[in-house]
Amino acid sequence: GAVVSQHPSRVICKSGTSVKIECRSLDFQATTMFWYRQFPKKSLMLMATSNEGSKATYEQGVEKDKFLINHASLTLSTLTVTSAHPEDSSFYICSARDRGRALEQYFGPGTRLTVT
Amino acid sequence: GENVEQHPSTLSVQEGDSAVIKCTYSDSASNYFPWYKQELGKGPQLIIDIRSNVGEKKDQRIAVTLNKTAKHFSLHITETQPEDSAVYFCAASLNFGNEKLTFGTGTRLTIIP
Q1: Residue B97 has pLDDT above 70, yes or no
Q2: Which of B103, B107, B108, B110 has the most A C-beta neighbours within 10 Å, making it the best mutation to test the interface with A?
Q3: Residues A86, A107: Cα–Cα separation, whole Å
Q4: CA separation for the pair A71, B71 (Å, rounded)
């Protein structure tokens, strides 16, 4: 149980284009999903928290117009990197909190974004 | 806000020996402390967690201890195996609905066969 999937696992895009990453909870309902960014050999940096049906809460320093987050249902959240630039290249990971288990966060496998 | 420090950053142990990773936190209100294992190119996997009303929790070869007075908690892995090699992260959060996790900086554990 408690499986979270992400799609795609890897994506390469050109500067100026937009990329959408999907995060799905496969066997549970997630009232809250989190989006993280991780640089090589570094810890996870929380970008934003999203709740189903409401606007995401962004961490300080994260541009909400650049990183669009939509949490349309209890099993799906999307992160869209708009007008991507090479400095947006990173490993993006989502996590989901099970509606029935208030504290545990379960992570997806991550998406490697490379912007050329 | 919460600040979590983790030590050591790298750790090598002989297969079969024990490994201990330590974390300290700053916010005395934090009361949920999970540990995650991350393998190369993958997302973190929850391996064990502890709540502040418990001092120790064990799951087979893995145990976590919590000292609320000193604000530190530790991960203990006994009888280590090569598949235990990974990066381990500790984290802390408050026990409310949407509270976010604050992560430590990670420990790269290498098990030497």
Answers
A1: no
A2: B103
A3: 25
A4: 35
Per-residue pLDDT reduced to its tens digit, A28-70: 888 889 999 998 888 999 999 998 888 899 999 999 999 999 9
Say which residue the tokens 């999937």 belong to: A5
Alpha-carbon distance values, A51 to A29, A45, A68, A77, B38 (Å): 12, 18, 14, 9, 25
By the 8 A CB rule, do B7 and B104 touch?
no
Return d(Cα B113, Cα B102) in angstroms, integer.
33
pLDDT tens-place string over residues B40-96: 989 999 999 998 888 999 999 999 999 999 999 999 999 999 999 999 999 999 866
Name residues 21-40 of chain A within 8 A of B (Cβ).
Answer: 32, 34
Contact B17, B112 (CB under 8 A): no
Residue type, B28: S
Q: What is d(CA A25, CA A74) in angstroms, rounded to the nearest whole number?
A: 8
HEC letters along chain A = CCCEEEECCEEEECCCCCEEEEEEECCCCEEEEEEEEECCCCCEEEEEEEECCCCCEECCCCCCCCEEEEEEECCEEEEEECCCCHHHCEEEEEEEEECCCCCCEEECCCEEEEEC
Query: Chain B contacts of A110, Cβ < 8 Å?
Result: 41-43
Q: What is the pLDDT of residue B54?
A: 81
Q: Are the CB atoms for B108 and B87 separated by under 8 Å?
A: yes
